[in-house]
Amino acid sequence: MDDAQVVATLVRRCVAGDAAAWEDIVRRLNRRIYNICYRFTGSGDDAQDLTQEVFVKIYRTLGSFDVEKGSFITWVTAVTRNLLVDHFRKTKQDRVTDSLDNTGAEDEDLLPLSEQLADNGPSPDVRVHRRETQEMVQQALQKLSPELREAVILRDLQDMDYKEIALALKVPEGTVKSRINRGRVELARLLSRTYRQVM
Amino acid sequence: MQGEFQNGFKCADFDALLAEAIDGTLTGTQLMRFEAHRESCAQCSLLFTQARAGYEWLEALPEVEPPVALVKQILAATQETARAETVARHARQSWTERIRELLSAKVRPVFAAVAQPRFAMSFGMAFFSVTLMLNVTGVRLTSLKHVDLRPSSLVRGYYETTGRLVKYYENIRFVYEIETRVRELKRAATPEEKPSGTDKQQDRKEQNRGNDREKKYENYSREDSQPYLATTGNGLQDVLAAVRRWS
Ligand SMILES: [Zn+2]
């Protein structure tokens, strides 16, 4: 059984009221959903709340998902994306105006665990530099419009293919590609400007 | 725009292939025409450079670790949702709707089982005990001589009496089933109190007592009666053979 089949079986069991199957679904998907939310909002707290919200929504509407019809991952991504867009409309970009240099130690715990624990990894200088770079990219990502942001997150961070993204966002594949291109280009422009300022 | 119509390959065509070009999945003629345009069109060349730079910047972003407590939080939140929805649905429903829901969800299988001819037949067999039949019809053994013992009336009497008994038994069984389900519903609808400290044992005791009660009903309706019915099945054959001998 491949991963999709395993998930389809879990969904069927879950709809039939199997609590263990639901827990399995949560364990398999929480990391992925949390990462999408984190990269979209740029905030660990928001990502945590939104991930929980996404799962509650999935739980309540699981019965409407057609196992035969499409990929569960795509469906879950669509649910996630819709909640993110709602969240974006509600909060209307108040964080985006933050300047790039006021991110600090509060995000330290959001580094990958391997990087936090690695004793024999890169030297402290390299690590600090890498972390600064990551923060800058994240800040720039925050400045993209939600359409471009979600497109590059799903493609470049979640490795979804164009077809899956098109299904999740409910737009044609050509539109997906064009948004990814524009998102990447805009990100590069923002960062080249920032980089000149910071360095 | 320079190079816009070179080889019939426009900037829009370049744009359409840009994502795949960065993926590195362009091949053959497409790749050649894409590269030719890039070299001849400054604007598209810049787009390509920037798109690739953006892609590389994003590569720098690692996967982040979700908080350790996230899974627990999610499970707690969904459990709470499930409970709230059940309570809310029941609050909206009238009593008749709730009963109907109960019937459709839980009791239907019981009806189905009772409605099976084989099952109904075993009920008939079970109650074809001469003593029981005579008791129910109010006939005393001492006054047996007054009873019409002709086979035809005996057989008719059997079917009328057992018919009544089967109905009576089904009704009783049905009532027990309903009672059990209503108890279950009550338990489900009452918000579960988190047992704390010394209450735990008390709670467990309560629950065990509940289980015992339930088991009793289960035993009455399923485990006890069925084997009994099955073993008394032969009785009918004997009586029918006797009736046949008499006629
Ligand atoms: Zn061009």
**What kind of sheet is the major sheet of chain A?**
none
Distance from N terminus to C terminus of chain A (CA atoms, Å) equals: 51 Å
Described by the principal axes of the CA atoms, the overall outline of chain A is: globular
Radius of gyration from the alpha-carbon trace of chain B, in angstroms: 39 Å
Low-confidence stretches of chain B: 1-5, 108-115, 193-206, 208-233
Amino- and carboxy-terminal Cα gap of chain B: 113 Å
CATH architecture of the largest domain in chain A, by name, is Orthogonal Bundle
Q: What structural class should be given to the helix and strand makeup of chain A?
A: mainly alpha
Number of structural domains of chain A: 2
Percent of residues in beta strands of chain A:
under 5%
Query: What are the secondary-structure elements of chain B, in order, as H or E?
Result: HHHHHHHHHH
Q: What low-confidence regions of chain A span 5 or more consecutive residues with pLDDT below 50?
A: 96-118
Assign the structural class of chain B, choosing from mainly alpha, mainly beta, alpha/beta, alpha+beta, or little secondary structure.
mainly alpha
Main interface pair? A-B, 49 and 34 residues
**Envelope shape of chain B:** elongated
Query: What is the tally of helical segments of chain B?
Result: 10
